[in-house]
Amino acid sequence: MISVNPVYIPRLVLIGVGLIGGSLLKALKKENAVGEVVGVGRGLENLQLAVSMGIIDSFTHDAAEAVKGADMVVIATPVGAFESILKQILPNLKNDAVVTDVGSVKGEIVAAAKRVMGDQSSRFVPAHPIAGAEHSGVAAAMVNLFVDHNVIITPLPETGPECRSVVEQMWRLTGARIVEMDIDLHDQILGVTSHLPHVIVFALIDYLSKQNKQDLHYQFAAGGLYDLTRIASSDARMWSDICLNNKDKLIPIIRGYAGELMRMADQIEAGEGDILIEEFEHAKLARSRVADYRK
């Protein structure tokens, strides 16, 4: 069993060796908080790079084989792959192994964990680090990615306190802040603050790309557009997976935002400058509050 205080994980298996998992392991290795690390993935070049970077010690394409003897398993794959992976690894997990994830959608992941793990779901600790970058893959991993960022824990009622403590302490070693949140509330809030912005930016750039004389649109794109659309460089497959797995929350959010756009279009058409000024000022103040929380 993992030692709780101080945190030291003798054997950790990372399933999905990319930006988030790679950054987590970089931070843990810096703190000497982990022993043997086995990476699981499909891309040979990416896995070999992870070894050369010192993020993992060895790798395999077989998740079920990798987890034998593991003290902790971190699943950092797309949300849609989570249930299949759990089914593969569950028969080979030690009785006291801790399982956690980094998924951006918790409702689907928790439901999958309950379906697959049953009475063993007490050792599953759902987690979501609120950090990232527009580039994906282990090559983008950063040791300080999580410093002063929130990691949301959405424990199940049956989540074991010792398992939860180990996962929380693991994340604290990365410099992150731990926040507990209800699963449904998590998916609603992240739907607005993370998933919607990505949908907006993907749609905006796609719209720009379909304009006549698109090269001129690219050439004369202002700094504001460039800054706003940075996240359009994010992994398309990953974000498609997130959107589909949070669709019950995300569809009403997108439609609500579309209504705001149409209302503003009506105000512009009607020449309602005073109302626009009021709404723009309100947005400016709200943006200041967001910035305050980021400091």
Please provide a written account of the structure:
It is a single chain. By secondary structure, the protein is an alpha/beta fold. It folds into 2 domains: 9-181, Rossmann fold (3-Layer(aba) Sandwich); 185-294, 6-phosphogluconate dehydrogenase C-terminal fold, CATH 1.10.3660. The protein has helices at 19-30, 44-52, 63-66, 82-89, 106-117, 161-172, 183-209, 214-219, 223-228, 236-245, 247-269, 273-294, and strands at residues 9-15, 34-40, 58-60, 72-75, 98-101, 124-125, 127-129, 150-153, 177-180. The strands form 2 sheets. A 6-stranded parallel β-sheet has the order 3-2-1-4-5-6. The longest helix has 27 residues, at 183-209.
The percentage helix is: 40-55%
CATH architectural arrangement of the largest domain:
3-Layer(aba) Sandwich
pLDDT averaged residue by residue:
94
Structural class: alpha/beta
Measured distance between first and last alpha carbons: 37 Å
Overall 3D form: globular
Can you tell me the CATH class of the largest domain?
Alpha Beta
Main sheet attributes: strand count, strand direction, barrel closure: 6 strands, parallel
How many strand elements? 9
CATH H-tier superfamily of the largest domain: NAD(P)-binding Rossmann-like Domain
In terms of DSSP E residues, the strand content is: 5-15%
Count every helix, treating DSSP H or I runs of 4 or more residues as helices: 12
Radius of gyration, in angstroms, nearest whole number: 21 Å
